Amino acid sequence: MKEKKEVLEEVIGHQFTGYYKIPIEKFFQFAVSVDCVILGYHENGLKVLLIQRGAEPHQGKMALPGDLVYPNEDLELAATRVLKELTGLDHVFMTQTRSYGQVDRHPVGRVITVGYYSLISVDRYEPLANSWADNVSWVDLDNLPGLAFDHTSIIDEALTMLRERVRHQPVGFELLPKEFTLGEMQALYENILNEKFDKANFRKRILSMGLLKDTKRMQSDVPHRPARLFTFDKEAYQNLLKKGTNFEF
Amino acid sequence: MKEKKEVLEEVIGHQFTGYYKIPIEKFFQFAVSVDCVILGYHENGLKVLLIQRGAEPHQGKMALPGDLVYPNEDLELAATRVLKELTGLDHVFMTQTRSYGQVDRHPVGRVITVGYYSLISVDRYEPLANSWADNVSWVDLDNLPGLAFDHTSIIDEALTMLRERVRHQPVGFELLPKEFTLGEMQALYENILNEKFDKANFRKRILSMGLLKDTKRMQSDVPHRPARLFTFDKEAYQNLLKKGTNFEF
DNA sequence: AATCTTATAGTAATATTTACTATTAGAACA
DNA sequence: TGTTCTAATAGTAAATATTACTATAAGATT
Question: Strand D: which residues have Cβ below 7 Å from it?
Answer without folding.
Answer: A 181-183, 199-201, 203, 223-228; B 198, 200-201, 204-205, 208, 218, 220-226
